[in-house]
Amino acid sequence: MDEVIERIRRELKDTADPEIRKISQRFFKEPITCYGMKTAAVNAIAKRYWKEIKQQDKHYIFNLCEELYRSGYLEESFIVSEWAHRLSDRYEREDLAVFWHWIDTYITNWASCDGFCNHTMGDFIEKFPEAIDELKAWTRSDNRWMRRAAAVSLIVPAKHGRFLDESIEIASLLLTDNDDMVQKGYGWLLKEASRKHSDEVFSFVMANKRKMPRTSLRYAIELMPKERKTEAMKRDW
Predict the structure, then answer these.
(1) Among 84, 137, 138, 230, which is disulfide-ready with 120 (CB 3.0 to 4.6 Å)?
(2) Phi-psi region of 69 (alpha: psi -120 to 50; beta: other; left: phi over 0)
(3) CA dihedral sign, ordered 139, 141, 142, 145
(4) What per-residue confidence (pLDDT) applies to 1?
(5) Apex CA 192: angle with CA 191 and CA 196, to 5°?
(6) Is the dihedral of CA 105, 184, 84, 97 positive or negative?
(7) Which residue, 136, 218, 235, is CA-closest to 180?
(8) Does residue 105 register a pLDDT over 80?
(9) 212 vs 51: CA distance, rounded Å
């Protein structure tokens, strides 16, 4: 095991709070493994160790990330998210294969999925927009977290008004997904897209509300005016 990883794990164990560990499980339907720490404390550790490793070769850092992911601990996945995001100026197109592998192999809950995809994948797509075609392929995965990743990877760009057509296409591909984590994921994407494109998202919702799960619909219209929410939620069938 790398010496940096050993020191990080020792610090995580020493800082862990059994009460936080007990409370943390309440936020997840699936079992999680965690030390029991607040996210801000984990991020502080990640940033401190980043200063030590940031000059290292990117692939060495990727190997550290994989070692952290292998543990299955929630907090270690958060460190991966922090470090991978900080590598954004060094991303290359072939890194998508690494990111796909991490999501498909190691991510087992919404917090790890969103923490990684919102920023690392969001930055990657901004740099290589043609990779959105691969996100579309993820919507067909048997892995619920890959399907959620297809949507939440566009959250930050969509919030700033970018990739509207692609966001709507991914929402269309996931429209009737039976998994509530996926439904919430693409509903959230539509909500963020509505910040700059409310009319277009509302039109999509109205055209598809008979097929769209109510969970997704509620997320999608959350930022809309009351009258639009009422119209969208109205059962007209």
Answers:
(1) 84
(2) alpha
(3) negative
(4) 64
(5) 105
(6) positive
(7) 218
(8) yes
(9) 46
How deeply is 90 buried, as exposed, middle or buried, from its count of CB atoms within 10 A (0-12, 13-18, 19+)?
Answer: exposed
For tokens 């160790």, what's the residue?
Answer: 49
Q: pLDDT confidence of 70, banded at 50, 70, 90?
A: very high
191 half-sphere exposure, CB direction, 13 A CA radius = 17
What pLDDT score was predicted for residue 236? 62
Q: At residue 235, what is the residue type?
A: R
Dump pLDDT digits (tens) for 111-164. Answer: 999 999 999 999 999 999 999 999 999 999 999 999 999 999 999 999 999 999
3-class SS letters over the chain: CCHHHHHHHHHHHHHCCHHHHHHHHHHCCCCCECCCCCHHHHHHHHHHHHHHHCCCCHHHHHHHHHHHHHCCEHHHHHHHHHHHHHCHHHCCCCHHHHHHHHHHHHCCCHHHHHHHHHHHHHHHHHHCHHHHHHHHHHCCCCCHHHHHHHHHCCHHHHHCCCCHHHHHHHHHHCCCCCCHHHHHHHHHHHHHHCCCCHHHHHHHHHHHCCCCCHHHHHHHCCCCCHHHHHHHHCCCC
The structure tokens 């991914």 sit at 170
**Mean predicted confidence (pLDDT) in 100-119:** 98
Q: Which domains does the chain possess?
A: 1-90 (no CATH), 109-237 (1.25.10.90)
Q: What pLDDT sits at residue 53? A: 97
